[in-house]
Specification:
Radius of gyration: 24 Å
Largest sheet: none
Strand content: under 5%
Helix content: over 70%
CATH architecture of the largest domain: Orthogonal Bundle
Structural class: mainly alpha
Number of helices: 9
Number of strands: 0
CATH topology of the largest domain: Arc Repressor Mutant, subunit A
Oligomer: single chain
Length: 193
């Protein structure tokens, strides 16, 4: 049987028939995503799943896959670290009481924090970054990394203690003119939820 005469899989048939509707659906869910990429990714996931087991309702499966992909993209984009940087730029440009020196000190503090994070053991660093940078909950981290919530909490406790101690050591050993001092920055302890 030639390639042209081979029967199409149910997912492929459903995808061809519903592609325009899928594009409209994804566009209504979130017009900020690359709609074509989401639709293609939904088809690929469904096609791979179909190779493992029969899918009872291929069209519904395609729409559900497209929805999940779109929501994952939106969730990931809402946690981009660059959003926080853009927010900080807006604060500095809005004529706040912060000046260029405060901005430099904040940059130095961020740099020190990055160094502290890089010194954490690999798994502890993964947990800490997922929580503090990407805003994942303890439960989400547990599921994502396949570890218990108590293990997540242990890594977070070690990560917080390590980063706090590292920053305290570095900031309090610098001379007054060498960089930011912890007392001059009036840092609030971050929420440890």
């Amino acid at each position: 049987m030639s390639k042209d005469n081979m029967p199409m899989s149910p997912i492929t048939r459903s995808f061809i028939a519903a592609k325009a509707a899928l594009i409209r659906y994804v566009g209504r869910l979130n017009g900020d995503v690359d709609i074509e990429d989401v639709v293609q990714e939904a088809y690929l996931r469904a096609f791979q799943k179909e190779r493992l087991r029969e899918i009872e309702n291929p069209k519904a499966y395609l729409f559900r896959a497209a929805r999940n992909i779109t929501l994952n993209i939106a969730r990931t984009n809402s946690r981009r670290p660059t959003d926080y940087i853009e927010d900080a730029d807006a604060v500095f440009s809005a004529g706040s009481s912060y000046g260029p020196c405060d901005e430099i000190e904040a940059d130095e503090l961020i740099g020190l924090h990055c160094v502290a994070i890089s010194l954490l053991p690999r798994r502890c660093r993964e947990v800490y970054v997922l929580k503090k940078v990407y805003g994942y909950s303890r439960e989400e981290i547990s599921r994502k990394l396949g570890i218990s919530i108590s293990t997540v909490e242990g890594h977070l406790t070690r990560g917080y203690a390590h980063c706090d101690n590292y920053l305290l050591r570095k900031l309090n050993t610098n001379g007054a003119s060498d960089g930011p001092q912890l007392n001059s920055l009036k840092l609030k302890s971050p929420s440890r939820d």
